[in-house]
Amino acid sequence: MDEFKPGISLEKTFTVKEEHTARFLGSGDVGVLLTPSMIAFMETTARLAVDPFSRGIHYRGNPVDAKHLAPAPKGAEIRVTAELMRVERRKLVFEVKAYWLNKLIGKGVHERFIVSREKFLEKVKSLKTSKKSS
């Protein structure tokens, strides 16, 4: 885990499509970026920032503690940044931000945990099996 160093960062651009809007998911009747879609963009950017250093490591993301500060319409190009701020054992802590037309429209903190892919999948399998027998 020594490969994960504070300062690792990535900037990625996303286009707001109909499926990313409040109208599409029934959260409102306007075609603007939905908060969960912005959060998904942030999570994706954070994951991709550390992927080159992962060497087969699997991550489990936690919800982003984010503030959605301003709207962005369908068709907007959203620029998302993620910077690794801290490494606390298996926890990676990112600062994430979203911009539209160079205006900050969202910001927050996102945590990702390094987990064993095999153990994670085994746990999911055992939960699935225990659900069936209930």
Describe this structure in words.
This protein is α+β, with helices and mostly antiparallel strands and about 130 residues long. It has a single domain (about 10-130), classed as Hotdog Thioesterase (Thiol Ester Dehydrase, Chain A, Roll). Helix content is about 25%, strand content about 35%. The protein has 3 helices and 6 strands. It has helices spanning about 20-25, 35-50, 115-130, and strands spanning about 10-15, 60, 65-70, 75-90, 90-100, 105-115. Strands 1, 2, 3, 4, 5 and 6 form a 6-stranded antiparallel β-sheet that branches. The longest helix is centred in the N-terminal third of the chain and has 16 residues, at about 35-50. The model has no long low-confidence stretch (mean pLDDT about 90).
How do you describe this structure in short?
This protein is 27% helix and 37% strand.
Average pLDDT, all residues: 89
What's the architecture in CATH terms?
Answer: Roll
Tally of discrete structural domains: 1
| Helix/strand structural class | alpha+beta
Total E-strand runs: 6
State the CATH class: Alpha Beta
Helix content: 25-40%
Low-confidence stretches: none
- End-to-end separation in angstroms reads 39 Å
Reading the helices and strands in chain order gives: EHHEEEEEH
**Beta-strand content bin:** 35-45%
How large is the count of helical segments? 3
Can you summarize the main beta sheet? 6 strands, antiparallel
Could you state the CATH homologous superfamily? Hotdog Thioesterase
For the CA atoms, what is the radius of gyration? 17 Å
CATH topology call? Thiol Ester Dehydrase, Chain A
Describe the global form: flat
